Amino acid sequence: MMHAPVRDREELSKDATGHPLVASLQRAFAFLNNVIVVFAAMALIGACAVLSYSVIGRALFQAANYWQDEAAVFLLVGATFMTAAYVQQQRGHIGIEAFVSLLSPLANRIRLWLVDVASLLFCCFFAWKSWTLAYEAYSEGQVSNSMWSPPLDIPYGLMACGMTLLCAQLLLQIIIPLAGAARR
Questions:
Q1: Residue 3: is its pLDDT beyond 50?
Q2: Dihedral over Cα of 9, 15, 16, 21: its sign
Q3: Residue 62 phi/psi, 5° resolution?
Q4: What are the residue ranges of helices labelled H in the chain?
Q5: Which of 72, 90, 88 is nearest to 146 (CA)?
Q6: Nearest to 32 by CA among 151, 141, 172, 140
Q7: How far apart, in whole angstroms, are the C-alpha atoms of residue 171 and residue 164?
Q8: What is the pTM of this model?
Q9: Nearest to 126 by CA among 104, 159, 152, 175
Q10: Taking the mean position of all CA atoms in its chain, how far away is CA 118?
Q11: 98-127 pLDDT per residue, tens
């Protein structure tokens, strides 16, 4: 089923104009997010390779690979959380189009701003808890319960970094209308 373009997606732009600091921050985050997406794509390819190696190794050589599941999970956790800010920057998350089409452009801008504020509050809490979890794992030397025993501060740190970047992206999206920056 085809839909007409959603109005809140039409208002998105690459750069905010009108405030040089906000525009430069937005360009910096866009660059950082694009770099992270490249590394996340390599991590996904790496996870596919690790799991494919595991399947082939078990099928052909009856070799037990005790490390492949955790390595793939670490790569997937990193790719998922580190790219969350990119998805938010693109507003690529799931949205309800029917509700958006019923609102006026002003109501949609207010809705977007309120959703961003609520998301920021939740993500700040999530990031804070992620950092405390990563710190505990690092300071206590926590490792996974497997023969490989990789340190758990790796996935927790990736999760915390990704959530922090997401919080920064949300904060930037909240500041854009408050700073008087117009979207192209």
A1: no
A2: positive
A3: 50, 35
A4: 7-10, 20-61, 68-82, 84-89, 97-102, 105-139, 153-178
A5: 72
A6: 172
A7: 10
A8: 0.83
A9: 159
A10: 16
A11: 777 888 888 888 888 888 899 999 999 999
